Amino acid sequence: MIGRRDLAGLLGAGAVTATALTLTSTAAKAQAAQNTFDKVMAAKKVRVGSVAAGLPWWYRDNATGKWGGQFYDISSALAEDMGVQLELVETTWGNAVLDLQADKIDVMFGLNPTPKRAMAVDFTGKVYDSALVIIARPGYEPKTWNELNDPKVKISVDVGSAHDQVAGRLAPKAEIIRFKSIDEATLALRSGRVDAQVIFWMGAVRAVKKDPQLGKVVVPQPLFGSTSNAAVRREADKTWRDFLTTWITYSAGLGIIRTAVVRSLEHVGLSLDDIPPGVTF
Asked: Is residue 188 within 8 Å of residue 111, measured between CB atoms?
């Protein structure tokens, strides 16, 4: 037979258990509510990583502080469709993954989904197709990646970028010299310190158009094709990633993505006729 004290103890234990379950349920709901999509909508602000020296993808006018470039246009369209404010957070291609993990930014456009990056962050569906090329110094015109894969060949890349990772995989025998930015890697080519710079075609075409003395844009064979995607912080709730993939697909269908790319090329004096043969986007 259960006495009053025992009954009170059982009731107390039940109350504690019920309270614990309620707290656990509340905590679970609070944690679920902290997914990036909900936070962006609650704050009415989306934080996008931006790269100051990143033409034609990004650029910032030092005199006015105004931003531009294809990913600025794409980010602006995203914010407008979501009904939120666009906040640009300056980063670099090499630090973007770390900034996502540190919750400094909500999305980074323009990252290629390499296996190394995919171990740390999630990727949306592709924004567009891209191709890796080289800028070869005057008088040096390798036709294949195998020709580049030579200990005598010096290649410049921006550290931590897809350029860096792919060059190391396709030309591991070459002397790969790493710099903090794309511009520094290009400067090394201009000064004759390297034989070639590995870079995606938009940056290569723009650099050579601006300074023909750099050399020539070469599309080494076999053609290395990649995609330009958006990266997001890895979290259990995939709402943010899935929403962005849906939005990108929708925007591509409406021509928003292509218009942003073409406009960014025009800003640096390029046209569709300047695209190297065999390269599409």
From this structure: no
Bigger pLDDT: 281 or 186?
A: 186
Tokens of 155: 């290649």
What's this model's pTM, rounded to 2 decimal places? 0.72
- C-alpha 204/C-alpha 196 separation (Å) is 11
Structure tokens at 136: 């070869």
Tokens of 96: 């973007």
Lowest mean per-residue pLDDT among 15-29, 92-106, 237-251? 15-29
Torsion sign, CA atoms 217, 220, 223, 225: negative
In degrees, rounded to 5, the angle at the alpha carbon of residue 174 between the alpha carbons of residues 170 and 178 is 90
Q: Is the peptide bond before 276 cis (omega within 30 degrees of 0)?
A: no
φ, ψ (nearest 5 deg) of residue 157:
-145, 165
What does the pLDDT look like over 167-219, one tens digit per residue?
999 999 999 999 988 899 999 999 999 999 999 888 899 899 889 999 999 99
Which three-class secondary structure state does DSSP give residue 129?
Answer: strand
Closest CA to 217 of 229, 228, 203, 235: 203
Give 112's contacts (C-beta < 8 A, 6+ positions apart).
130, 162, 200, 226, 227, 228, 229
Return the HEC string of 182-223: HHHHHHHHHCCCCCEEEEEHHHHHHHHHHCHHHCEEECCECC
For residue 11, give the amino acid letter: L
- Tokens standing for 131? 């191709």
Q: How many CB atoms lie within 10 A of CB 277?
A: 5
- Residue from 178, 193, 166, 211 nearest 55 by CA: 211
Question: Residue 237: helix, strand or coil by DSSP?
Answer: coil
Please report, in angstroms and rounded to a whole number, the separation of the first and last CA atoms in the chain.
Answer: 80
Read off the pLDDT of residues 238-260 as tens digits, 9 standing for 90 and up. 999 999 999 999 999 999 999 99
Contact 144, 221 (CB under 8 A): yes
* Helices 239-253 and 36-43, axial angle in degrees (round to 10): 70
